[in-house]
Amino acid sequence: MRVRTTSITKAFLVAVAAALLVSPSLSGQRQATTKATSYKVPRMPDGHPDLQGTYDIATLTPIERPRNANGKLSLTDKEAVAIERAESKRVEDRAAPSPVDRAAPPVGAPVGGYNNFWIDRGSTVIRVDNTPRSSLLIDPPEGKIPELTAEAKGRITQRFRNGPNADANEEQNQNVFTLDPEAYNDPEQRPLGERCLLGFGSTSGPPTLPNYFYNNLKQIVQTPTAILIHVEMDHDARIIRMNQPHLPSTIRKWMGDSVGHWEGDTLVVDTTNFTDKTRFRGSTENLHVVERFWRTDDRTLMYRFTVEDPKTWVKAWTGEFPWPATDQPLYEYACHEGNYALADILRGARAAEQRGEGKKK
Question: Rounded to an integer, what distance in angstroms lies between the CA atom of residue 262 and that of residue 255?
Fold first, then answer.
C-alpha cells in the first residue's frame, strides 16, 4: 500500500471548487445551468468527450443515507462543515502519540490491522450543484439500499457463516471472528479481496465505489475502441469494450463484461456476465450494472450507477458522486505478490482446530 498525505484545507477547497452541475433526476437528462452552457467539453480526435485523467474519489459521504439525515439527500453547508470538522478532529486525535506507559492488550484480544497513519478515507462530503449530499444513493428516495429478497437473505447468511474476511474493513472485523471448519481448507475458498486478487468493497467495480479506507485513485485511459479504468486499490484494470455486443453468457468475469457506448456527451457502460465469486453486496452472477460518466468541468467527472439483481434486491437502486481530478500519481499496489497474511490465515485456522475451536454444532 502507499501513504498519501492531503491537507484538509486543500481538499475542502478542491471539493468546493469542483461543485457539480448535474440534476439528481434518474432520467439521465441533466438540467442546463449557466456554467454548464458555457463549458466547452474537451474532445478526443474521434470527437467524443475526453474523460482521461486521474481522479481521487475519497469522500466522507456514505453510500446509504445515515439515520441522522432524516431522509434528506441535501445537507446544509453548516451540517457539511460539521461533518468535515469532526473528521479533521478524529484524524488529529488518532495521530497523537500513544501513552508510553500503556498496558499490553489482553491475551487473545484482537489488536487490529492498520492504525490511523495508513487510513485516507477523505476529508470532505460530496457536493452536487454546489449542494452537500448526505449519501451517494439518490434512488430509492429515502437513500437506502432496497430490501433483500427472501432467497438472498438465506444465501447471504450461508455465505457469511465463515466469519470475517478482507472484504470488510478492520473495524467491522473486530470481535466477530467465528471459525467454520470448512471455510479455511484451501486458499481458493477465501474471498477475492482477502487473496488480493480484486479490490474489496467494490473499488474495482462495477459499480466502482469509494472504499473509505485508502488507495482512492482511479485512472481513465481512453481510445475509440476501448476505455480502461485503472484502480489503485489492488491494481485492478477494468477494460470497457466500446460499441460491441456482450460476450456469450457462458463467458463470465470477476468484473463482468463491460460494454460502452456514447449517448451525446455521456459515456454509458452496461455490465453483465459476472461470476458467482464477485458477490457485490451478496448479489448473484445475474447482477446487472449500468453506469454513466460525463464531464462537468475540466477537473471533475460525474459518475452515476444503477444496480439490479432480481434474485438479490426487490428493486433496482441508483447512486451518483463526483470524481475530482488529482495531480497525484497512482501507486503500485503489490498486495497479492506479498500476501503473507493469507498463509497466516490458514495457519491460524489450523491452530484453532488443534485447540478444538470451530467444530460443527
Answer: 21
Residue closest to 148 by CA, chosen among 306, 274, 310 = 310
Per residue in 258-275, pLDDT tens?
999 999 999 999 999 999
Q: How crowded is residue 148: how many other Cβ atoms within 10 Å of its Cβ?
A: 17
- For 59-70, how does the pLDDT look when each residue is reduced to its tens digit (9 = 90+)? 999 999 999 999
Torsion angle in degrees (nearest 10) through CA of 121, 80, 305, 326? -50
Please report, in angstroms and rounded to a whole number, the separation of the first and last CA atoms in the chain. Answer: 39
* Pairing mode of beta strands 317-324, 288-297: unpaired
Whether the model pTM is above 0.90: no
| The pairing of beta strand 257-263 with beta strand 236-242 | parallel
User: Running DSSP on this structure, what letter comes out for residue 71?
Assistant: T
Q: Which of 178, 234, 227 is nearest to 203 (CA)?
A: 234
Give me the DSSP letters along 329-344.
PPPP--TTTT-HHHHH
Burial of residue 251 (number of CB atoms within 10 Å: 0-12, 13-18, 19+): exposed
Tell me the DSSP string of 274-335: B-TTT-GGG--TT-EEEEEEEEEETTEEEEEEEEE-TTTBSS-EEEEEEEEB--SPPPP--T
As a whole number of angstroms, the distance between CA 48 and CA 211 comes to 30
How far from chain centre, in Å, is Cα 129? 22
